[in-house]
Predict the 3D structure of the following.
Amino acid sequence: MQPRRLTPRPAHVYLFGTCLVDLFVPQAGVDAVRLLEREGLVVHFPPAQSCCGQPAYTSGNPDEARAVARAQLALFEHDWPIVVPSGSCAGMMREHWPKLFDDEPATQARARAVGERVHELAQFLVEVLHVDYSQADASPVTVGLHTSCSARREMGTRAHGVALLAALPGVSLETHANESECCGFGGVFSLKHADISGAMVRDKVAALEGVAPCFVTADCGCLLNITHAAQHRQRALAGEHIATFIMRRLEAGA
Amino acid sequence: MSGARERILARLRAANAQAAGTPPDVAAYYGARAAALGASPREVRVARLCECLRASRADVIVSPRGEWTAAAVAALRRRGVGRLAHALDPAARALVAALPPDIDAIAFRDPIERWKREIFEHCDAGFTPAAAGVAATGALLLNHGRDLPRTLSLVPPVSLILVDENDIFDDLHSAASAQRWAHDMPTNRVLVSGPSKTADIQQTLAYGAHGPRELVVIVVTGGEGAA
Amino acid sequence: MSTHPVEFVSPTQFRARVDEALHDGGLRENFRSAMQFLRDKRASQFPDADEMEGLRDVGEAVRKHALAHLPALLEKLEAQLRARGVHVHWAETPDEACAIVHGIATAAGARRVIKGKSMVSEEVELNHFLEARGIECLESDMGEYIVQLAGERPSHIVMPAIHKTRRDIAELFAEKIPDSTYTEDVDALIRTGRNVLRDRFMQADIGVSGVNFAVAETGTLWLVENEGNGRLTTTVPDIHIAMMGIEKVVDTLEHAIPLASLLPRSATGQATTTYFNLITGPRRDGEQDGPREMHVVLLDNGRTQAYADEQLRATLQCIRCGACMNHCPVYARVGGHAYGTTYPGPIGQILSPHLLGLEASRDLPTASSLCGACAEVCPVRIPIPDLLIRLRNEANRQPDDGAAQRLIGQGASFSVGQRLVWRFWSGIYASPARYRLLRWAATRLRVFTPRAQLGWTQHRTPLRPARRSLHDLMRERRQAK
């Protein structure tokens, strides 16, 4: 995690929805937009966007990752922040896009410039927008929080998830056992080493279940992994993207 | 196998690795830390050394200079030591002179081949003077060589080590630089921080794995010069 | 590449061993609690994050510096060792390393070897080599001794018997050690081990040890240990043979100091170990004890391959603390034996491909969720996840693509089918039009989503696209405004 200069509060932002949110959890993307608009920002959603390229990058297919990343690089022509509602994708864009273009200095410079504008949603809400959720629904609820490993390590965002939950009246966060441990998703890892991944997510489900009936996360890969594993084991544990959770609390408080 | 040597070195050279990043400045790192923490007074260093050693299950006795041999004898007595192995350094001579008749002193001046069985099977304790103490980690420096067989602090079940409060440094780096270790390496320089131990059985600590089960440390205080 | 006739284990059986390990509830529990214990201990040693980061910076700089000057430092080390009467040997392969040790033993007429802890000797399977030639080779580190007695191999590089419970060891000792009675008392078990090994130390002709840091400036071997078996191994027998990988060298004695602080704190959460041994040559004239003859064996075994590549070279920064495995969620679940390599866990996953080739080790680089816990704790900041990705790239390449630096086993995971899948994938995601078509199909035809989705549905309910994609919902929002 590098120290980064704090962006002043902008008037416009881009939303990079990510492929998983797009197809599987679109509500999280919509709620992210609504949270940003609630702060008075104009949110731009470049319709040509698809994926950050992470699946190919982490599975050892750099050419394909490069092709997909390259297609995204042209989408953010204005100098606005790019907000991403998924920590690992944000980490891919910030930390790894530049590495893909070692042999193309001009593109690498562009990738670096774009990467520097990338913010994980929770971080952006806390550090740039300094959100105030004191008017949200105050009915008491206990939740767990899962932070994606890449978000925690590459973007330093665990603190932002904690801060957002703390800003919501009535919400109490319970820390689960081995909180910092990976849920076992890891993209293609969950397919290639299904049993190891399965053992990891089983432990994660049990740990989260141990503290609360529901959990929130700012990463859609982890969200799908944990919730679908819980369903598979017929557990009642429910998971929600943090943007959707916040939005529900705000609406209920209105 | 000189062919192997040439081939390995040739492969390494072919990589053409050149100094990447900043060269390490270890002295600057420790210097900056020392400056930030401030030089600690001797009493603090002594206290820290004792605390760390005790945390490692050593028996630490702080003794005024004139009384250390008596303190050592008392410590040996408490453990029922009947035979004490030692070298011929001045501190050992002083201790031997103070030994009561029921503790035998066994001086080792010959090659180990002549006393291997004796020290393995018939010595209850060994005495060794330390050349320095490291407060931060509670370690004692033993410079084994011509005047100090390494076996003395290794084979008998009780190791008795003497350290002078004037030889205690804040950390390993300050000890090594002040004493210019790199300029004169004895064959066997050992840092000891407690009795021998292992946690190889289900992370349960057990003492006396292979080396001494007990470490007795005498820190001599007061006055200047050798003990 | 090992050409030993007998290979005890191999990473080629990784998947089968993982399956076994995951179904062994007791084993999982042992590892889980042991890893938790080691993680907590390490954390207690680094209460001050700034101090830790500063020290890691220095440690990394020291190791990078040593690697940048490796050929010159090895020559300097060799010259310093020779000046102190130490014999220096170079080995390219495990067989060569074993043959060197065997040659020394034969020349001295030695029959009994006692070993301190040495991962390099495990790597070259020295025990097996010598025993096949009638030379007894006994491990003296308690963990190694336990593992040897059980006919197994270490499951952890710092705590070799971490997979065993107290009860396992109690049963093992009662069965294998003559005249011992069954006890689960740890002190009593250690006493038994000590008594057996004491005699062997006295009788051994040769002591074989590893090396933690080899100081080029002074020709000093720095050994880190708690038990005192390292001291005995390097002191009592007439001949001391130290085995080390060529990467273990550091420039100056001062450079070893931060590493000697990082190593025990990262490995076992100790401020320091009981003993640091700084060995500079054999017994000199007038000294009463210590070995009369001393040898150092410098082993390559694939390290020069890692060295040849600027990125992969970082693999050789490792100081073998094991913190990466202690913090690895995969290692904690499958245990060290599953990997089938001398070095298990994350460091083993990035090192073994150079030692054994990517063909044999192809399942290792992918066996990681890339969570980054390893890199976060690595005392010398090896970017392990980046190196895992790099090795995945190398395994996926065409075997014969004319790469300048071809890794042994390059292309081990290459398949035309996989290639086409990824081409197809990028063809969709790099093209807005094709991606639009995919979205349309996935959302409108969602009822046809397959129920079985490769490995995903082994442990999870199937993924099913939403009714409307985010793109659809955003378009509707725009139109509504």
About this structure: DSSP finds seven helices and twelve strands in chain B. The helical segments of chain B are 2-14, 26-37, 42-55, 68-78, 90-98, 116-122, 172-178.
